[in-house]
Design a protein that fits this description.
disordered N terminus; six-stranded mixed sheet; 540 residues; 3 helices; mainly beta
Length: 540
């Protein structure tokens, strides 16, 4: 499909939350059932492959959310230095130390946020970030490694030499972390991500030990072949865009369009001019990419377990996202905007109809805790659409719950926002394996969630020292009501801005000093029976 044709095809995109989805569109009820597993610890941000109903787990972190102190963040003790083989039939796991694998595997295979993709018996691993003893510091590993999955599993289980199962190529273009790796036809697509060398420091690259950070701003396209001499890579011209492709730690989902595979990059961080997630997705197909700026995804902004369901007969795709971290989340009949971007429990579905319309729905089912961030969905072979991993065949799901796979690992947080108080004990790597069951139905939808851009607003700064300033974007000059409540819903302050005091577009409002004690509050704005709510943090 040419870029011009893609532009015409996608011009109809719009955002819509409501109960009345098109009749041919389906909603799904989701159920997660925890399963006890022996011998498996909690791991987040890992890579995996499947063979003969055995799950191979490589890399990732053994702790929870990274700490803010450079000496503690991404420390070597938290590296996963084992390969786990989980038998999905017996629910028993066995671990194997990677120290005997030799370089570069003994270091790269202990890194976090490796980009990975499995095709048939081979697992392809790109980059990853961790402390390297060889370099005596934190680096993004410049390696493409290829694992012969059944050969490695057999060698580990029988105590045999693993060298015949492993291939590696050193290439600085593979020094990427936080992107995603997929394949269309014979070509690999390494979408987004960054190179990060040095110890993480939230104060920036020029503070403390310092670090180097550079987003790829690209979709790197290449072909891989295995020869007697090792791994060979042939690069195509990349897609480069310093705005729309400037993203990492996002969700990349495959989907089908009249039996042709494409990719959709959903959300991710950070926008170039503000430390907030992207809201619109980018479509990537074989020979072009296209930002879909007409559609905003309000939920599930960081990488989380996800899947695609494809209805071939109607050429419709359904994307489901499980928890994670997001700037917005539903609460009753309102949307809460929290620019601190907290952990959420939201399970959402985005429908991509055959006419190109996208619609986001918050399902009534939620994650059992603040879960999902940096976890992975492991599909069951019996329900996959052909040979496509992460695409579920719509026809395999009926009106009764169908087991479609598992969710494992990720970060379990003790509260929605722990970023500024994180000492390492507020979150953990989740050790629980969840079986994912899905059925068709409409009972899972939250029918009252409605997002209207008329009510877009931001509080600045937030947290604030009690003087509350906000910018509200309005498209009509109806009276605007502002309401401040506490966590219990008690009204603490209200104000009405008359239409004579409003301008179309951005309005900068100063509510002054309200003498509120330190704590968490909510600001709601109401106009024309529409409501938008955002979390407010007072810190004097």
């Amino acid at each position: 499909m040419t870029s011009q044709k893609m532009s015409l095809y996608w011009v109809a995109f719009f955002l819509f939350f409501s109960f009345g989805l098109k009749s041919q569109s389906t909603l799904f009820d989701v159920k997660l059932e925890p399963i006890s597993v022996t011998g498996l610890s909690g791991i987040q941000s890992y890579a995996f492959a499947k063979y003969d109903n055995k799950l191979l787990i490589i890399g990732g972190r053994l702790d929870g959310l990274h700490q803010r102190q450079p000496f503690a963040s991404f420390d070597e003790l938290g590296n996963n230095k084992k390969i786990y083989i989980l038998d999905l039939d017996t629910k028993m796991a066995t671990s194997y130390n990677i120290s005997n694998l030799g370089m570069p595997y003994s270091e790269q295979f202990a890194s976090t946020n490796i980009q990975f993709y499995q095709e048939d018996n081979f697992l392809y691993l790109v980059g990853g970030y961790a402390f390297s003893n060889t370099e005596d510091g934190h680096i993004t590993f410049p390696y493409l490694s290829v694992v012969d999955v059944p050969t490695l599993i057999n060698a580990l289980e029988n105590g045999e030499d693993t060298s015949s199962a492993l291939y590696s190529l050193k290439d600085e273009k593979m020094a990427v972390t936080g992107g995603r790796l997929e394949k269309i036809g014979e070509k690999f697509y390494l979408v987004g991500g960054q190179r990060f060398d040095g110890a993480y420091n939230p104060m920036g690259p020029d503070h403390g030990p310092g670090f180097f950070q550079e987003y790829t701003n690209e979709v790197r396209i290449f072909e891989v072949s295995l020869t007697e001499s090792g791994v060979e890579v042939n690069y195509n011209v990349p897609f480069h865009d310093e705005m729309h492709l400037h993203r990492r730690d996002y969700n990349l989902l495959p989907f089908m369009d009249d039996s042709s595979k494409s990719l959709m990059a959903f959300s991710g961080v950070f926008q170039p001019t503000v430390d907030l997630p992207w809201l619109y997705p980018v479509r990537v197909n074989e020979d072009a990419y296209l930002p879909i700026e007409e559609f905003n995804q309000y939920f599930n902004h960081y990488h989380s377990a996800n899947l695609t369901i494809y209805d071939e007969s109607n050429n419709e795709n359904y994307f489901i996202f499980f928890g994670g971290i997001a700037q917005f989340y539903p609460e009753g009949d309102q949307i809460v905007q929290d620019n601190n971007v907290p952990f959420v429990k939201t399970i959402t579905q985005i429908n991509l109809d055959n006419d190109g319309q996208m619609k986001e729905v918050a399902l009534s089912a939620q994650m059992p805790d603040y879960l999902g961030a940096s976890s992975e969905f492991i599909p069951a072979d019996a329900v996959k659409y052909g040979t496509e991993d992460h695409i579920i065949n719509f026809d395999s799901i009926g009106d009764e719950y169908t087991s479609i796979g598992y969710i494992f690992g990720g970060i379990r947080s003790s509260a929605d926002n722990i970023f500024f108080i994180n000492t390492g004990s507020e979150s953990t790597a989740n050790p629980v394996l969840y079986e994912v069951k899905v059925k068709r139905g409409i009972s899972g939808i939250n029918p009252n969630v409605l997002v209207d851009k008329v009510l877009d607003f931001q509080i600045y700064p937030n947290p604030t020292d009690d003087r509350i300033r906000m910018v509200v974007n309005v498209k009509d000059k109806s009276p605007l009501e502002i309401l401040i409540t506490n966590n219990n819903g008690q009204k603490l302050h209200s104000r009405v801005i008359n239409k004579a005091d409003l301008e179309l577009g951005k309005n900068f409002l100063d509510l002054g000093q309200l003498a509120l004690p330190d704590g968490v509050y909510y600001i709601s704005i109401n106009q024309n029976n529409r409501t938008r709510k955002q979390k407010l943090i007072i810190s004097n």
